[in-house]
Amino acid sequence: MPQRIRAHLRSDTELVDLPDHALLGIIKIPQPRSFSPWWLITRRIAYAIALMGVVAVLVYTDKGGYTEDLTFVDAVYYSAVSLSTTGYGDIAPVTQHARLVNIFIITPIRILFLILLVGTTLAVLTDETRRTLQIQRWRKNMRDHTVVVGYGTKGRSAVSALLADGVSPASIVVVDTDKDALEMASTRGLVTVVGSATKADVLKLAGVARAKAVVVAPNMDDTAVLVTLSVREIAPNATIVASVRESENVHLLKQSGADSVVISSETAGRMLGLATVTPTVVEMLEDLLSPDDGMSITEMIVTAADAGKSPRELSPLALGVVRHGELFRVSEPAARAVQQGDKLLFIRGLAPKDAQADAAGER
User: Fold this and answer.
1) 2-30+142-267: CATH architecture
2) Whole-prediction pTM value?
3) Distance in angstroms (rounded) separating the CA atoms of residues 205 and 261
4) At a CB cut-off of 8 Å and minimum separation 6, what does 114 contact?
5) PANTHER family, alphabetically (predicted)?
6) Do the Cβ atoms of 228 and 147 come closer than 8 Å?
7) Which of 141, 341, 354, 356 is deepest in the core (most CB within 10 A)?
8) What does the pLDDT average to over 169-185?
């Protein structure tokens, strides 16, 4: 069975073995907002006119060095036909000085003028080269990032929570097959990878092997199982948080290597049930889950100075204590006194020390 699953996860062509320039349509790294095409064209035309003006002034300054005594219009005419390489031959330099000016000044300007004429093609080539180098640097330097598999409702919400918690958009990689969804992710400054995350090579391309955490949020539970299994095989030390629709599939995600599993349908169902009885409770829960404003749940590491104290002493808003990966509610005996290295979960709004000071002032 594991061999069959691995065969399913393996593709015929390993994307990670492709050269960087072949990944331009797969990996997209957000770019700074560029100027409009009309502005770029106008700017190039202005550069071309400026170059013609410079050459016309040079030629008119040395007007006696040509086959006839030039007027300024003649100088402009010579500049146009010379820079465009038309070269009618009716005006030509005859003195040594004029010929040296043409060799060392006008000829380089002529080359620059030609570059402007084919600027669109060069811009495309330059852009592709720049993006290829960006992908090369990104694949080499990306470390301790977060990979989000699936950019549907759950994936977008997970990204919003990460961004609200201060995570840089550049350290989040989104993997999906929906190009419209990936385009939406790219507008938020996220790195995107096109492909099915059930394929190991796509996950490798997203840097899963060096990722700190992976959020598995596809639309189907069986896909979540396959992705989790593949991620755990590639990145044995990464934290995997997976989402499933049905609770009966939780054990499959756990067996596949997920560290934490969120049941989306049952959580939504409980919220709906509470809303019919105690809607204000649901409003409070939504406020806690909202990362942008209101209250939110956060954690702090217990130091040696705070060891032995009650969680309520450190924060009146304490909810629980995490010890060796296990959660204890503050009402449980194991959480009556915190230990060094424990994680204290509390409602953010009052910092623990500030909350402690406020509580002492009330007494």
Assistant:
1) 3-Layer(aba) Sandwich (3.40)
2) 0.58
3) 24
4) 85
5) POTASSIUM CHANNEL PROTEIN 2-RELATED-RELATED, POTASSIUM CHANNEL PROTEIN YUGO-RELATED
6) no
7) 356
8) 91
